[in-house]
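Thread: iron/sulfur cluster complex, take 2
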Amino acid sequence: MTKKIKHVLGLSGGKDSSALALYMKETRPDLDIEYFFTDTGYELPETNEFIDQLEERLGYIHRLNAKSLNNIEGRGELDFKSMLKKHQNFLPSQRDRWCTIQLKLKPFERWADSLIADGYEIYSYVGIRADEPHRTGLLTIDKPITTVMPFREDGIVKSDIENILQRNGLELPAYYSWRSRSGCSFCFYQKKIEWVRLKDNHPELFEQAKEFEKGDSNNVVGERFYWMGKGEPLETLEDPKRREQIIANHEKQVERFKKKKRRNALIGDIEGVCELTDIDEIYDDVEGGGACITCYK
Ligand code: SF4
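Output below.
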């Protein structure tokens, strides 16, 4: 009996998974791939717009959704506030990424389960590049799913990604003008400068993040943790002095990075440094310091 195989590719709204989907069309046109986007319900408007643009080029994209999943399972609409309550009002953090499990992996797991129940073996295509040293940040579900990394197999590196998007008539997603990654508007992997810019670009989403941060202080157990870390709630960004300090620090980091590039003569056009696509190098991080590959890749 021939095996039933389902090829799936998760789009995060980030540049790498988007480029991978287009690259697969170019290089493996015979593969019948199903695309999916797991909408946490807290995505940036720019991400949703970009997914619509991708759909015009790729064809249908399944929208998996944590809120509707919970409705389907008869648990009512489970929004982030009620999830927070379930976690004793502890915000998710790098040490406890419960958000990724609830908002990203569970909806995918449900979809995968339905495919497995139909007798499919699943091949999941992931946009991890050949120049990425680790698979840090990639959370997966415990199911019989084979992960495939075509960029790694084909030696595709960061500098190839924009070319792939461009030759398919796509610009970088619009959020790159102020933020380095897709994912939830309140993602704790953001740099402080990105929180400042969230406030400027989407004040209502900044306010929402502030609300989540306040939580129910009567029920908070243990030390208080904020989106930006210990001791610095988002409302500190309303102080013009703190805001200016964060902007100045970021500008210094960018300058430092440009100087380093000049010294190493790694690129000819220093002015072409994009502070948001190069944010990891600017802050000496490897892929966001283990940031949420599952969410932004
Ligand atoms: S994008 Fe950030 S906040 Fe959202 S699920 Fe991923 S890690 Fe959590």
